[in-house]
Q: What sequence folds into this?
């Protein structure tokens, strides 16, 4: 579904992404791991079109997307959440998701299409799928940190993506919220057939949910493979997992 080859992004002379490679097959849950500053967020910004690469290619469903603007990439079925939750704090959870469903349908609220009546069922369905149905009419800014981050996933789902990209989905969450989020990610992949690409620093989360793992360091891809293979990789053990 997604093939990233020799991707490069420099900020001035600094190579934040330095010939990175990544393969994501349809239906997989793929984790990108690596220390702070490895280039994970920059990689996601490149894939979603928020940054333009200096070199390399990004193919989504066989089509080169690296020169497309973010909204075009989004329409092709790539949606994301951010490392820091990105929601409308003063709108209800319902309205946050409804806006995204409407934009996917190229609709907006007008005099003739009052917000009360459009995309209501789809919006409730998404809120139910992520477990926020009972909080639909709460103001987003009043939700717990964990629920705000789940709401952000719901907003991404409003775009009806085939590839969902999550930047540290459990960052700042309590252990209970983390468990809920892992269960949600698994459910989105299993029950709804979504392909999921995420980065994460918590190794328990990574090895609990990922089908495949790509390891980054200094913008480079050290290795990618099945969790067991990655665990056995000596360079990875030294750098990230700590030697036993
Ligand atoms: P990660 O998400 O793996 O922690 P990032 O992709 O956020 O890493 O950052 C990789 C490196 O690129 C870091 O050293 C960071 O300081 C640098 N960087 C990221 N964005 C910018 C930017 N817009 N301008 C300059 N340097 C940046
Ligand atoms: Mg990051």
A:
């Amino acid at each position: 579904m997604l093939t990233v080859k020799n991707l490069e992004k420099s900020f001035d002379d600094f190579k934040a992404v330095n010939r990175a490679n990544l393969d994501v097959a349809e239906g997989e849950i793929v984790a990108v791991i690596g220390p702070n500053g490895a280039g994970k967020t920059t990689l996601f910004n490149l894939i979603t079109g928020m940054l333009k690469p200096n070199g390399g290619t990004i193919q989504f469903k066989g089509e080169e997307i690296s020169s497309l603007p973010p909204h075009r990439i989004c329409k092709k079925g790539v949606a994301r959440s951010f490392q820091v939750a990105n929601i409308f704090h003063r709108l209800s959870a319902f309205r946050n998701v409804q806006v995204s469903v409407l934009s996917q349908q190229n609709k907006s609220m007008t005099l003739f299409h009052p917000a009360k009546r459009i995309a209501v069922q789809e919006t409730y369905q998404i809120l139910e799928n992520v477990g926020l149905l009972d909080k639909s009419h709460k103001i987003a800014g009043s939700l717990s940190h964990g629920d705000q981050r789940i709401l952000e996933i719901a907003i991404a789902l409003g775009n009806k993506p085939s590839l969902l990209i999550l930047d540290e989905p459990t960052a700042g969450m309590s252990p209970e919220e983390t468990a809920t989020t892992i269960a949600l990610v698994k459910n989105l992949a299993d029950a709804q057939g979504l392909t999921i690409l995420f980065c994460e620093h918590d190794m328990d989360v990574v090895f609990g949910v990922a089908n495949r793992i790509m390891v980054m360091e200094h913008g480079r891809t050290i290795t990618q493979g099945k969790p067991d293979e990655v665990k056995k990789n000596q360079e990875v053990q030294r750098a990230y997992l700590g030697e036993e």
User: Anything to note?
Assistant: The longest strand covers residues 14-24. The domain at 1-77+161-244 is CATH 3.40.50.300 (Rossmann fold). Residues 175-190 form the longest helix (16 residues).
